[in-house]
Amino acid sequence: xxxxxxxxxxxxxxxxxxxxxxxxxxxxxxxxxxxxxxxxxxxxxxxxxxxxxxxxxxxxxxxxxxxxxxxxxxxxxxxxxxxxxxxxxxxxxxxxxxxxxxxxxxxxxxxxxxxxxxxxxxxxxxxxxxxxxxxxxxxxxxxxxxxxxxxxxxxxxxxxxxxxxxxxxxxxxxxxxxxxxxxxxxxxxxxxxxxxxxxxxxxxxxxxxxxxxxxxxxxxxxxxxxxxxxxxxxxxxxxxxxxxxxxxxxxxxxxxxxxxxxxxxxxxxxxxxxxxxxxxxxxxxxxxxxxxxxxxxxxxxxxxxxxxxxxxxxxxxxxxxxxxxxxxxxxxxxxxxxxxxxxxxxxxxxxxxxxxxxxxxxxxxxxxxxxxxxxxxxxxxxxxxxxxxxxxxxxxxxxxxxxxxxxxxxxxxxxxxxxxxxxxxxxxxxxxxxxxxxxxxxxxxxxxxxxxxxxxxxxxxxxxxxxxxxxxxxxxxxxxxxxxxxxxxxxxxxxxxxxxxxxxxxxxxxxxxxxxxxxxxxxxxxxxxxxxxxxxxxxxxxxxxxxxxxxxxxxxxxxxxxxxxxxxxxxxxxxxxxxxxxxxxxxxxxxxxxxxxxxxxxxxxxxxxxxxxxxxxxxxxxxxxxxxxxxxxxxxxxxxxxxxxxxxxxxxxxxxxxxxxxxxxxxxxxxxxxxxxxxxxxxxxxxxxxxxxxxxxxxxxxxxxxxxxxxxxxxxxxxxxxxxxxxxxxxxxxxxxxxxxxxxxxxxxxxxx
Length: 753
What we know:
The structure is a single chain. The chain has about 750 residues and is α+β, with helices and mostly antiparallel strands. Among the domains are: about 5-45 and about 95-280, putative glycoside hydrolase family protein from bacillus halodurans (Beta-galactosidase, Chain A, domain 5, Distorted Sandwich), CATH 2.70.98.50; about 60-85 and about 385-400 and about 410-535, Alpha/alpha barrel (Glycosyltransferase), CATH 1.50.10; about 670-750, Sandwich (Immunoglobulin-like). Helix content is about 35%, strand content about 25%. It is built from 18 helices and 35 strands. Helix 1 runs antiparallel to helix 2 (about 75-85). It is globular. The chain starts with a strand and ends with a strand. The model has no long low-confidence stretch (mean pLDDT about 95).
């Protein structure tokens, strides 16, 4: 079983344990006499929709471009800050919902304290003894019933006595009773914003429940169940908000704890149970509290079992914060304790949101990807307006942030990052990735127009310069170069990442058109434009060039490694397909790391993926250990610092990539298996072409794999230097063995589903 567990309560938020059902989230601190649950609801975004497009951008664009081409970067950036920044410059933040505070009485001389997060069932458990009584607390958040359920029990002569209250600092309108056994806190999220409400009700057979003032009071209980629910007027009318919440709570009370728990576990296991990662000889590590294991990692003694626990935790988090019919994972997933969080806890789309979804397809959680696709669709009308007003272009565009409303205007006045036009383009590559893993033509047909609109913008936006089509202005997020005259700049033309993203987007649009039988002029224009993009180039130091010219870097160890997009998540740079570029990517990573790179959790996660794609298992694992040592909180949250969830998801994807890599034409087995993972298995990963794989290895050598094809495939299987072509019919499964003597892949048997 996979569990995070501790011998003491959390003393700070980054030690609390997360629960979620996609819409509702909780951070459980595990206090004994004073318990605290910090709560979130996915639509708690302050303020309303705003049109922030700068009306002066379009008129200033030609002058800005000419200044950039003339090398007058400083003046160009000054004008960009004035004419291209949003009005106002910032979107509104995602905010905490509030808190539940419990004050328990009758608890003294506590012994045998234990709290845990069970990843196999998505339930929080806590227990301790007081005298002759064993106290147990359990909490989960149900997706089927859309409520949080809590059960507090006393087994012995002691009883459960507590008062509970709801709180949100000063940022709410009022509190009131919710029936005879509940309390309600309500308010609004500013002018034009949503109304919100949260309710807590209690039920006990043997004790007494009453509401006094703003407190829910329970006395003399031995088995107390509480239900919590919250919401905003994002999806329901203001008039229906509180009735809908109360109805869910009443229904949950009628169903009862046992029924809710059984349905919750069944729903969760349908997703989480698809994949199983096993490593040999790790049971001994599970006997240590999680915070002690992280402390050992900080002292250079990371155990290999942390890799499995972190992988399972990443899948748990994605299921808990991104479910169908909901909103996507923010910069902090679902869990945010602040009114004004770091970077507003928005959707930062110059890598962070994309990284959140890297594990979705390969880790068999395709449904969890869906909220991102819905957000992209929401961005389209806003992005059309931004494209027209700011740039005079067709199609749709978005910069490096968006929000619950799908805002597409420039965020902040930040020269190294704000004026980047690739956000929508990169997001739309996720639609193609989903198709590659599912071969779902209906999905492709539905999303193809969105992909094309993102591409259409660039057919208008790209300009001819020195024989190439280039983006201008263009920035390599979020890095800064030094000009030959010593001046600093961040915005230029045709940076490497732009070209790589556009090469993917244009190619994917053309391939999608072929699959869907679409032939038109736009297809031909995309093909021609792709040919004129600046190719990925190798610089004088043997590294991948980040900018179109050989500039010095202000920060050689910068956290962003944008020019290696072509290595991962793209397939433009591969070890066996483009060996010179792969070697240059390796040099790029070495230079970054030698200068202090990987100092943020998500950056380290990207580096692990890069080494996985370079088939270097030892370097990948070395960086996993460094992530545990320097970029992981005691509750396994990723440390930027502060907390950002993208590192959790990035490493989850990287662990999968270390064991299996796939395209429609090739599957690579154990491409980056580190020595530390000597024996083990990974079951249930998805492969491109609508397939699924189980893989087993012993003493660092492939033993066997089993591949199931949903729709039929013909693909080359590669392990080490061995290659063999295999073909599957729809619904067929094949087991493939590694013949050590022949150093060859051989089929074991064929069986049909």
